[in-house]
């Protein structure tokens, strides 16, 4: 059991499964701090606690009664609070003269209650427990500010998240509306979808006709090579994935194409394929995988189910924890569409059912209907939530893309490279046109200001 001390909060969600940034030295301006968190919030007879890491960025805080931005973190380790000048969270903090706090999600990074992630120990890794962590933490943090001249300060709280943590941001408003004044759910995946075939359908749409045609052709050639015993291993080796089963290899390849598009790097995927000029397409895709995807977004070994069965907690690993969350609550299983699939048909719902049972035990499977009944899916009853999505992001189909009411506005930011979390992160490949992002950020700013009044 890990242990001890105090608090803070910001959320960002990752699709990549390896986090080398946590191995880098912490910025001296934002030292890591610690909060002593309750292990089981819903069992009064269980007094166990564990240590959660948090960080504070108060460089924009004016003091007095200025608000707190609670930036929620998701399924990965954290190395510090939002601090880059082009981060919209920092823009908001500067405009509001607010302090930013961010809390590492339970079980991720160096905030795990256990050193051994057995199924028995993972049972406290739930959305309900994570939301209660946020409530417990941020109220304690606020009380810590109420000293001296600030003893009677209100210190209003506004929470923000991206992707899974964007969903947490919306759910936090739903479950704890008395704690926070409002929320931004950037690419907030609030709808737990069991068979998420819209994901790959969006990849085909986002990459355009020329690229998707070549991409589909490439994947069919790859399947032919993998199905041949004489070329199976040599082909996987080109992708540095010879340790993977065929099915796990195909899951990885779905992420290679999906994540490059998802995060606005479709040029890294499409340009080499479309301009291959007679070069073997599988060779081109292997080069893209090794040089543009691997290390930045994932590593082949992380897709192996033997790896997922490893129970020791490692700070920079998030694979087992995130699969636990998807296999028990959230799903988001990216199955191959019936037509025009860039993903092998091997990756069907049976594959995911087998993976969940193999890694966590027979019968492990999410009840997405019950989960959405509890949290509302994409018809959430949470109010004062600003939903935003990127036009090319495949995850938008698990989010809210149309306004649910005056207090639940939703925008889709339309531009080339407008991918996952674009409102907060911007476009790594450059937003084109850039004015679309600026317009929606201005709109979000007005809602935040209004809800904090």
UniProtKB/TrEMBL annotation:
GO terms for biological process: proteolysis. Residues 1-15 form the signal peptide. Keywords: Glycoprotein, Hydrolase, Protease, Signal. Belongs to the peptidase S28 family. One of its GO terms (molecular function) is serine-type exopeptidase activity. This is Uncharacterized protein. InterPro entries: AB_hydrolase_fold (IPR029058), Peptidase_S28 (IPR008758), Ser_carbopepase_S28_SKS (IPR042269). It comes from Planoprotostelium fungivorum. It holds the Pfam family Peptidase_S28. PANTHER family: PROTEASE S28 PRO-X CARBOXYPEPTIDASE-RELATED, THYMUS-SPECIFIC SERINE PROTEASE. It comes from the Eukaryota.
């Amino acid at each position: 059991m890990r242990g001890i001390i105090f608090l803070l909060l910001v959320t960002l969600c990752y699709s990549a499964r390896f986090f080398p940034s946590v191995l880098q030295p912490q910025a001296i301006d934002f030292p890591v701090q610690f909060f002593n968190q309750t292990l089981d919030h819903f069992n009064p007879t269980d007094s166990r606690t564990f240590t959660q890491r948090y960080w504070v960025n108060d460089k924009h805080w004016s003091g007095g009664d200025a608000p707190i931005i609670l930036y929620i973190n998701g399924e990965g380790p954290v190395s510090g609070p939002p601090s880059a000048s082009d981060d919209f969270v920092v823009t908001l903090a500067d405009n509001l003269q607010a302090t930013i706090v961010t809390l590492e999600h339970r079980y991720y990074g160096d905030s795990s209650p256990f050193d051994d992630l057995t199924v028995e120990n993972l049972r406290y890794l739930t959305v309900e427990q994570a939301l209660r962590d946020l409530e417990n933490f941020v109220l304690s943090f606020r009380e810590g500010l109420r000293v001296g001249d600030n003893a009677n300060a209100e210190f209003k709280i506004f929470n923000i998240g991206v992707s899974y943590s964007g969903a947490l941001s919306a759910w936090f408003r739903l479950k704890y509306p008395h704690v926070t004044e409002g929320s931004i759910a950037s690419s907030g995946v609030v709808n737990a979808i069991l068979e998420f075939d819209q994901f790959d359908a969006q990849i085909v749409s986002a990459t355009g006709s020329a690229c998707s045609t070549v991409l589909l052709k490439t994947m069919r050639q790859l399947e032919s090579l993998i199905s041949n015993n004489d070329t199976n291993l040599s082909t996987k080796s080109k992708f540095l994935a010879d340790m993977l089963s065929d099915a796990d290899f195909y899951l990885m390849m779905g992420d290679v194409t999906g994540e490059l598009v998802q995060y606005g790097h479709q040029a890294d995927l499409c340009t080499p394929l479309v301009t291959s000029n007679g070069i073997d397409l599988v060779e081109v895709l292997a080069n893209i995988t090794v040089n543009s995807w691997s290390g930045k977004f994932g590593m082949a070994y992380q897709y192996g189910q033997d790896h997922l069965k490893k129970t020791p907690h490692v700070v920079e690993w998030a694979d087992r924890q995130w699969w636990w969350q998807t296999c028990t609550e959230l799903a988001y299983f990216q199955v191959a569409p019936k037509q025009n699939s860039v993903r092998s048909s091997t990756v069907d719902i049976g594959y995911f059912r087998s993976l969940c049972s193999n890694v966590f035990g027979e019968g492990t499977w999410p009840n997405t209907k019950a989960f959405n009944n509890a949290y509302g899916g994409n018809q959430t009853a949470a109010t004062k939530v600003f939903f935003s999505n990127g036009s090319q992001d495949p995850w938008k189909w698990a989010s809210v893309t149309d306004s649910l009411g005056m207090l639940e506005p939703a925008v889709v930011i339309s531009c080339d490279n407008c991918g996952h979390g674009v409102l907060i992160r911007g476009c790594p490949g450059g937003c084109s046109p850039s004015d679309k992002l600026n317009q929606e950020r201005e709109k979000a700013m007005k809602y935040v200001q209004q809800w904090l009044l």
